[in-house]
Amino acid sequence: MLGGVAFGAANSVLFYGKARTMNKVVGLIALAGALAGNVAWAEAIRIETSRTLLLLEKNDKGDVGWIYWGDKADEPARKWWRGPVLSTFGGWAEEDAALRVTHADGSLTTELKLDKVERKELDANRTRTSLTLKDPLYPLTVRVDFTAYAKEDVITQQVTLTHQEPGDITVHAMASTLPAFPQGDWWLTSFQNRFLDNWPNEMHLVEERLMPGTKRIANYRSTRSAYFENPAVIVSDGPAQEEAGEAYGIAVAWTGNWQIDCRLDTGRGLSVKAGMADLGADYKLPPDTPYVSPEAILTHSSSGKGQISRNMHDYARNYVLVDGDRPNPILLNSWEGVYLTFDEAKIKEMIKDAADMGLELFVLDDGWFGNGENARDTVKAGLGDWQVNAKKLPCGLQGLADYAKSLGIRFGLWVELEMVNPNSNLAKAHPEWVVQSGKREKLQGRNQWLLDMTNPAVQDFVVASFDQILKDAPGISYIKWDANRTVANVGSTYLPKDRQANFWYDYARGLYAVYARIRAKHPHLQMQVCASGGGRVDYGALAYHNEFWTSDNTSAIRRVFIQWGTGHFYPAKAMAAHFSRSGVGNPLNTPFPASFRLHVALVGRFGFELQPSHLTPDERKVAEAGIRAAKAYIRDIVQFGDLYRLHSPYLRDGYAALAYVAKDKTQALVFAYSLDTAYDKGPLSLKLAGLDPAKTYAIEEVLVPPARKPLKVSGQKRTGAQLMKDGLTLPIAKLYDSCLLRLRAE
Ligand code: DGJ
C-alpha cells in the first residue's frame, strides 16, 4: 500500500486497459486528479530504499517522468514533473536527448510510452523495478531497470534497448540515467587528475557552483576510464558539507568512454545525464540484440556527503567487490623497489624481507617475462610474450611462489594482457590484432600498442595467456592487472567497415567478457585493477576485482589529497595505499617521516612499495610496528568500518583528519596529519563524528612518531558526546607530524 492507494495485479490490468498475465506487474498508483503543469498524472512508480524514495510517474499520455528523489520523510505533497525518465530525440523535446536513434528507415525521431512496470523482490534487501517503454510506431523497446538496495540506500539504473526493425538501427546516444532536480543553488563535486611535480594526482577534489548551461565531465580515452576524470560526481544544494545538507551521488559503472552532463536551467532546475559517451560512438545495432547501458549508481543523503560515501562503501563491499567481506592482505609490491631491474636473487631477498617484516603477500610487478631480444628489461619490449624470462628467473614463477610459501607468505604477479610491444613475438605473429585505423600510423604509447578487445580471437588469447600463467605457477594467488595506455587512431580490423564506431562499446564489453571468463575459473583469486595508477577506479571494473591501485604517486603528502578524494566513492578496503620512500612534493626533498608515511598508508589497503633493504633501521622499526598493529586491529576497522572525514586537506590550513568507526561503534581510529607550516597555525581542534554519544571511550595514541612523546590526550576518557561536541585539541603543528588515536568504548 503506497501513497494511501491500494494496487496490485488487478489495478495493473485495469491501468493498462488490457487483460494479460500480470503476475509480476505491480507498483502502479492511481492518483487521478493531481496535476503537474498541464498534464494530469495518473500513476506513480515508487522505488524505495530504507531512507530514500525515487518517485516516477506516468501521465495520461503514457510518458514517464522523474518527480522526486530524496528522503521518504520529505516526499512533497505537490508532485511536479521534473523531466522525462529518459528523454528522446523528437517531438518538442528540448533536452540534449538521453536516447537518440536513427531507425532502419532513416527516421531520426523516437517516442517512448510506458508499456508495463514489473517489480521483483530479488532478495530481502533488493527489489528490481523494470519499466518497459515502447515506441508506438517502431518495434523498439527500452527497458529501464531500477534496483533498490534497501540497507545501503543505493539505487542502480540500467537501460536496455532492443528492436525488431527490418535492419540495423544506429544508436547515437543512450544514457544510463537522467535524474532531475528542482531549482536550487546547485554545486558539483567531481574528481580530476591534477598533475603536480610531473606526477599524477588522481581523484583531486574539485568543487564548483553550477551555472546555467551544461557542465560536462567525460572520458574519451576508453581504456583508462578514470585516469583524468572519475565517473562519479556529487551534486548538492549549496556547497557539499560532510554531515549536513542535501547531497546526491551519481556514478557510472563503465570501463570505457563516459560522460556526465549537468544541465542547469534557470527555469526548470538541474538535470544530470550520465552514461556512455556519445562522441564518435554511433552504434550499429542489429535486430534482436540487446544494447545494454552501464549501470548508473545513485545514492542520496539529507545529512551531507559523508553519508553518500558510507552508502557507496557499503554497496561496494556488499555487492560489487569480489570477496568484499574478506580482509585484503598486507603486501609488498616490487615496482618502486626494483622496477624492471632484478634477478632471482634480488626477488628472493625481497620475499625474505617481506616475510621477516611480517607481510602476508609479495607481488612481483612488471619485468618478469619476454625472452632474448624481447626480454622485458626496458618498457620497449616483451608485452605480449607472457612466458617467464628464464635468464632473470631460472627458478620460474612457481619457484618463487614455492619460496614465498616456504617462508609463510603468498605470491602475486603483475600482468598487462591487453597490450603488446612492437618488440614481441605476438606483434609479429598478429599485427592485425592491434587497434588501428586503416593506413594511419599505429601510434605507440609507452612504446606499446593496444590489442583489439572487440575481436573474440584477442579475447581468447588474453584468457588463454592468463590461464597458462596460472597453470604453470598455481602458487600465484594474487594478480595485478595493469593497462598503461589509451586508444589512439581508433579502429579495428575485426569490426566491419560500417561498424568501426562500435569499437568503444564493444571494447568495454570485450574486456568484461574476458574478466567474466577469468572470474568463472578463478572466483576467489585476489585481483587488483590498475591502469597507470588509478586509471580504472570505476564501478564497472571493480565488479571483477578485490581492490585497485590508487595512484602511481606514492608520496605521502600527495596521497593525503588523493585518498581523501578517492574515499568519496570508493572504500578503503579496496584502495591500495603503500608506504614508500617517495619524497615527491616534499620541499625538503627527502622521504617524509616514517610515521607520517605509515599513518597515511594505514587509511587504505595497507602495503609497501619499496626495496626493504633500503629502509633504515628506524624506518623498518616504524614499518614493522605498523604491520603488527594493522593485523591486530587497524585493518578490521579501516576495511570494514565507516569513514568520517573530519578535517579536509582541501581547506589548505595545514591539517587533515579522518576517522574510521567500527560498525558497532565500540572502536574508532582517528588519523590526523600536519601538512605544512601555515604561518598562523595553532594546534588542531578536531570534533569527531560517528561515535555513540552515550558511550565512554578510552583514548590511546598508538604508533606514536618516535620524534615526540605521546599526546596528553592519550590515556584519557571522554564520552562520544564530548568528543563530537567539544572535540579534541591535538598539538601536532610541527611539519609532517601526525597521530593515530585508538578509541575503545568501555
Ligand atoms: C603502472 C603501474 O601503475 C605501476 O604500479 C607499475 O605496475 C607499472 N605500470 C609497471 O609497468
Model description:
This protein has 746 residues and is of the alpha+beta class. It contains 13 helices and 41 strands. Strands 8, 9, 10, 11, 14, 15, 17, 18, 22 and 23 form a ten-stranded antiparallel sheet that branches. The protein has an eight-stranded parallel beta barrel with strand order 24-25-26-29-30-31-32-33, surrounded by five helices. A hairpin with a 3-residue loop joins strand 3 and strand 4. Helix 10 runs parallel beside helix 11. The radius of gyration is 27 Å and the shape is globular. The N terminus is likely disordered. The structure holds (2R,3S,4R,5S)-2-(hydroxymethyl)piperidine-3,4,5-triol.
Secondary structure: elements and pairs:
Layout lengths: L8 H8 L12 E2 L4 E2 L2 E10 L3 E8 L4 E8 L11 E2 L14 E4 L10 E9 L4 E9 L5 E10 L4 E10 L5 E9 L2 E2 L4 E7 L11 E6 L3 E7 L12 E6 L9 E7 L4 E8 L3 E8 L6 E3 L5 E2 L2 E7 L3 H16 L10 E3 L1 H4 L5 H14 L3 E4 L31 H11 L3 E6 L3 E2 L4 H5 L19 E2 L5 H17 L3 E6 L21 H19 L4 E4 L9 H4 L4 E3 L6 H11 L8 E6 L13 H8 L3 E5 L7 H24 L1 E6 L7 E7 L5 E8 L9 E3 L9 E7 L14 E3 H6 L2 E3 L7 E8 L1
Parallel strand pairs: 24-25, 24-33, 25-26, 26-29, 29-30, 30-31, 31-32, 32-33
Antiparallel strand pairs: 1-3, 2-3, 3-4, 4-5, 5-6, 7-12, 8-9, 9-10, 10-11, 11-22, 11-23, 12-20, 12-21, 13-20, 14-15, 14-17, 16-19, 17-18, 18-23, 19-20, 27-28, 34-35, 35-36, 36-41, 37-40, 38-39, 38-41
Helix pairs in contact: 7-8, 10-11, 11-12
Bound molecules: (2R,3S,4R,5S)-2-(hydroxymethyl)piperidine-3,4,5-triol.
The site of (2R,3S,4R,5S)-2-(hydroxymethyl)piperidine-3,4,5-triol has 11 residues, from loops.
